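=== Structure Prediction Worksheet ===
Name of assembly: unnamed complex
Input type: mixed (protein and possibly other molecules)
Chain count: two
Listed entries:
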Amino acid sequence: MEPQATSQPVVFTTQTQYPLPTQKFMIPTTWKRYQLSQLVNKALSLDKPVPFDFLVRGEVLRGTLNEWCAEHGIGEEETLEVEYIESIMPPQKMSDFPHEDWVSSVSCKILGHFTTASYDGHIRIFDYSKQLISSTMAHAAPITSVCIISSENESTYIVASSSQDLTAAITQVTLSQSPSTPSTSKVLASLHLHTSTVSSVSSNPLGTHLITASWDGLIGVWDSNVPSSDEVPEPTLTERDRKKRRRVDDGSKPRRKAPLNVMKSHTARVSKALFGVGQEKKAFSCGFDSTVRTWDTEYGVCEHTISASEKPFLDIALTPDGNSALAVSTDRTMTLYDLRTSQTSLSSSKASFSHPATPSCVAASEANSHQVVTGGYDGVVRVWDLRSTKGAMATCKAWEGTKKVLGVDWRRGVVGVAGEGGLEVWKVGEEAS
Amino acid sequence: MAQHGGRKSTKRKQVDEEEHPQDLPRNGALEMLTDEEDAGDASSDDGQVDKFPEIVAESDSDNSELGEESDGGDGEEEDEEEESDDDTESDDSLHVFPQAKVVISDITKQLKTVYPEIEPDYDSDSSTEDPPNRVGNIPMHWYDDLPHVGYDMNGKQVLRSARGDELDKFLATVDDSSAWTSAFDKNTQSDKPLTPEELDLIRRLYAGENPDATYDPYEPTVEWFTGEGKQEIMPLSGALQPKRRWVPSKWERQKIMKIVRAIRHGRILPSKTKSTSKFEPYAIWSEPSSSQPPPLPAPKPRLPTNAESYNPPEEYLPTEEERKAWEEQDPEDRERDYLPQKFPSLRLVPAYDQFMKERFNRQLDLYLAPRVQRVKLNIDPNSLIPKLPSPNSLKPFPNYRSLQVHHSGNRVRCVSVSPDGAWVISGDEAGVVSLWEINVGREVKRWKFEGKIGALGWCPRTDVNYFAVGIEDAISFIIPPNVDASVLSLTQSVLAPTTLPPPATTPSPVKWVTPPSSSWSLETPIVTIHLPSTSGTASNFSWHRRGDYLASVSTGGSVWIHQVTRRHSQAPFKKIKGAVQAVLFHPLKPHFFVATQQYVRIYNLSEQKLVKTLLPGIRWISSMDVHPSGDHLIVGGYDRKLCWFDLELSDKPYKVLRYHSRAIRSLQFHPTYPLFASSSDDGSIQVFHSRIYSDLMTDPLIVPLKILRGHYVVDGLGVLQVKWCGKHPWLVSSGADGSVAVWCS
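=== Predicted Assembly ===
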């Protein structure tokens, strides 16, 4: 029998904006992704050709249909359900921003700018032309994470950062509009709660509240207002300290701020805490005690706990629809948890994505609830489609794959990769949906 | 009669002579003769018939006829005529055996055979003889002293006949020349001349000859078995049978009677009747086949090849050099024992000259060469491996290297993990102590000291936060940065209280030095202990679980126990046997482990005495660690051995593991997980699962889980120290290649 003669019944489904009528196609088994993509484009008669990727039973079709069927033992009379998604273009490196020290976190929230938090205690803001616009010494110790709370106007931003000096800080950064005026920054407040390194800080979408996670197992909820006076008293100084402190002027000293609420349930280090998407009073956290917890921030109680076995979680991200959480752990997996069913089912782990090295950070796409990026200690940033668990859709090697990636952020088709080598910016096409 | 009297006694012959005239009937002419009669006639003609005298004596009237016949010539008595007439009534009387006659029965009118009547009268007995004196056949010596010699039939005494006196005897001898050859016969009471036979007998006895006259001592040998025609062909012989053949054996009878007696007395129980006659059926094919292998078939002789053909292809034919070389070789060294030869036709092929030799060699080979079928031990090698659980079921354990921190090429001798499991300090030989996060690997703080860093130990207390660094012969206590204010102040008050405790009464060579509080900084140690300068580099630290006591071992072998709160150091041992390699505090009891080169000694610190000495059998101990339960100890040695001791059981190791190919450098139990790890100079780290059961009867389960490779061997040194992260199954290892690796699950 000639290979051309065989064909496979296929039904196409999609969640993209290009649906095909439900209809059975007889597809020659020698076809690859390219032919299938052309078929879909032709069937939809799109003006501009859109490349598609095809998922067969949770796996991206890489070779021919024939090969896939032979590998999985599918007969030619079985109807295959093939889901097609918009292809991700191969990531392209746009630019890199070398730092003197390691960069622990990056935020791309400010349009046209990248905010990085470095281990030397500085918060730096770059624009797209690789120019360092602002550099703020927010902490004396390494900064572990940074987030943009809000912007008062186009040039003034409120930035929160967490640090190993046991505090988080709220910093006001005013970007210079012209080269002549240097940008200014001021640490407005320091958040005092934790007795150990603050591992993460994040704000809610409106920028009214902050949530911090720390190694001491506590999660603090804060409002983003800067108090007029210290809410937390200065530590009682010993005699010899007082002599030193006398020389320091306290005019520009940041206000010491106390939390609104302290949420205590984790038994080990909390590595990340963030607010829910679209749910004002909800927060999620993950920790080294192998749990993902759901919090009611208003009352400060743990609503639900998802317990995994021996998975010290390093980072968590929520999909834009807020229905599922992605947590990366030191056992080299990223696990997808469905937060809707978490109330009922015991273990709501839906899928597991394994990495060759420790994944240190995860960021979900803003626009698409199927795509995430993870950065690992092998220096590779992987783009995943949650429907395909077998392998990453695309990878980009930062710093030639020799240095650790510590933080990623993915907004507007741009992935900021922070790590040992500084900051790199890659262009990764986001699927619009 | 005298002629055939050789087989009769003389006396008997006399009797015959006297009796026959009465007994034997006279039978003159008889018509009715049978064929036997003719034979009798013939024998009578010869007068030599002497075969039946015995029968004559036995059988009565019939036999008399024979006797009469033989005596026919001198028979004269008439009264016998009558009797013979009686006999002649029956025609058969002349026969030896009773003659049957055939008559016609009166009743049946048939012919019937009638046998003659037998008359049992006294006359029929020829033994009745009438002795002359009629006293009877009695022993005559009874009457030797009596005047009579017996009694006659009427009871009258028979008087002794008169005997002549000596003179008469003399006269008789004179008169009768035969008187001297006569003897007195007591029975007849008269002299009786001796017969010539008797005289001959006397003469023979007198001459000492055989009394039997007929005995011929020189009669010819009868060849029973040899000689012409007497060769033994049949096993039967005509030889006389020995007596024992027909006489019952006396000894056999005794033997049999013994057995019979034993059976009667019940000493011998006759065995039960065996069912030997019954054939018990059994399944021939059901019995298992013999375990012995069947005899080996003889190896087949090799088949001839092309080269052995009479007309081999040209390429098989040897060249001249090859032929010469073959001929020069010894037969044993030859590769083959023939030379290929080419013959133009089969008819020209000569006889094979090696045929006999080859056959002989083959026979020798067949029966002299032992042929043994080598029985392979049919043991599944997998069955010899102990059943261990799969490593996958024993997760979590470290199985990959998460990150690596580099120390610019200097050997990292020591590493320590903070009690909360978040920070790692590592110290290298260049004097650099680096503090970094266990998860990220970013160095946060670096201290530079003069001299090698020999040991690091993080204080196990959680309310204070500091660690001890062994730099050459000094021990420094350092507070890490970014510590919570309350913890910091407590730590400072613990390490450098404002009011120093009173110095010990006994002067100690160890000096505790604290810089003034104004000069305190993160860069410098808050307290430094100066050990005596001869002690060498502090190489091993062991913190007591409460965090107040720190035991240190120096390369010089001195052991010190430092008490932080009292700022006092003491040497627990006045004198130490052997060089101390490592010390340990027992996690629960006030016990103290001291490992010298070959022994591990356990001391009770509160009672100040030796509890136990363990004999690991290691030539040079390098490291040891005690299980968190306090009942088990692992000891590693430079001779690659790792010994597991059950302290409850014995002073000998429960198990000796020898998995490393080079010296073991370091080992540690995980404080919470059932894991332990050992590192070696071969650059590998081995992770074991070690489950200890609360049930005392169950042995600890030790399962090798994973070999972690990633460190390079530099100058023969591999992984110098391994430490577990307290909260997670993560392992921190420092190597001679200047890198510190974190292995995650």
